[in-house]
Amino acid sequence: MSLWSLFQAASQVGGEILGDGAVVPSSLSLDTRTLQPGACFVALRAERDGHAFALEAVAKGAGALLVDHPLDSDCPQLVVPDTLVALQRWGQARLAAVRPKAVFGVTGSVGKTSTKELLAAAVGGWKTPGNRNNTLGLPEALATLPEGLSSAVLEMGMSTPGEIRRLTEIAPLDAGLITMIGTAHAENFTEGQQGIAQAKGELVAGLRRGGIWAHPADDPWCRWIAAQPWARHAEALPVGEGASFCLEAPESLGAAGGAFHLRTPSGTLPIRLQLPGEHQLRNAALAAALAIRLGQDPERVARGLGAVVPGEGRGRIHDLPGGGCLLDETYNASPDSILACARALLRLPGGEAVAVLGSMRELGPEASKIHRETGAALKGLGLSRLWAYGDFAGDYAEGFGLRALAFPDFEALRDDAAGLSAIPPGARILVKGSRFWRAERAVAWLLAR
């Protein structure tokens, strides 16, 4: 079975075909900015109506359109009552039709994407590209899932209750992994961390009976999930002290990554990573434990993990003139991830350790306090200076104390004489922030100079 033509897709999602129904889209696309020629452009009705961009998509080489009313275009069209419903049905049906032997789901408050990469490498599986982890991106990726796969590793994110439950309806899971339960998206949960745990636990609730899910043994909210009646149909696999799988002898190799030994029921396995930071060792231990528990060859697991390299904005290290380095962790930010990355920075070679941080988002009424606590924790870890920007930059700086500067936005951070240009030569620099603040701009500015 090759990729589906519009005719085949219509048989799964319904609707009417206008034009050549034999055309086979190479992929699905929700955004004209990233559309590749041959893709089917999906016109979603959201903050902006995707139908208004459909002709632009055709001009950029779209091979087909998924729309909710006929458009004045010669491009083949699949016309459906609701494009979001059709998108999700397309991805769901494609997975069911070419389902791999094992389908894994990965979630957690931090580290989802890195752990997805590690688990896919450990099991030799296909993985959702980029961060397509929501109710739009996941079915978009699954719609052109290759056939004949032994396994698929799907990242599953959420910002509100019910999202992961919907993802497991689209993609029922055989096994899963939760990296940790933190405070990301706290403003959307009146029950605090228990609400977040309940929402992340939807991944466990969505496992088939007898499925297995890995989690850190020392995470109290993961243990809470394991104790819930709705989780008892699946086997929890704790990884850590006192468990049958345990990370031992963690070692930082600086910019080269890290190493550890994984104690397993059948012996100890040495693993070396190219990803910096102790948090990545923990993520790798979770991935390795789950893979081995499900029958993967341990040596093959170790080789796979060792081949994973940092992605853009996710732990990539840049050497700087004067002996310093820049740790690019700009993809997103939460208190837990900022502190984990700061610890990784302190193990890299170079001069004084400093941070450039955009503000965090979706922290609810405690946001100011959390930013102050994060600033104070960075100071406590041993960072010497902090440059912060965004709506909570002052709180970061207040918590950090002396040698912290706050700026209202990136432009001020960039242009002020006390801003980015004041970072000393030879420094080790952590750059991080929420997606809203586009901290990658600070990386680009620093690397250019």
Layout of secondary structure:
Blueprint: H1 6-13, E1 16-18, E2 28-29, E3 40-42, H2 54-59, E4 64-67, E5 77-79, H3 83-97, E6 102-107, H4 112-123, E7 126-127, H5 137-142, E8 151-155, H6 163-170, E9 173-178, H7 193-200, H8 202-205, E10 207-216, H9 220-227, E11 235-239, E12 246-252, E13 258-264, E14 267-273, H10 278-293, H11 298-306, E15 316-319, E16 325-329, H12 335-346, E17 353-358, H13 367-381, E18 385-389, H14 393-400, E19 404-407, H15 410-415, E20 428-432, H16 440-448
Parallel strand pairs: 2-3, 3-4, 4-5, 6-8, 6-9, 7-8, 9-10, 10-11, 16-20, 17-18, 17-20, 18-19
Antiparallel strand pairs: 1-5, 12-13, 13-14, 15-16
Helix pairs in contact: 4-10, 4-11, 7-9, 10-11, 12-13, 13-14
| CATH domain topology of the largest domain | UDP-N-acetylmuramoyl-L-alanine:D-glutamate ligase
Bin the helical content.
Answer: 25-40%
Taken from the alpha-carbon principal axes, the silhouette is globular
Biggest sheet: strand arrangement: 7-8-6-9-10-11
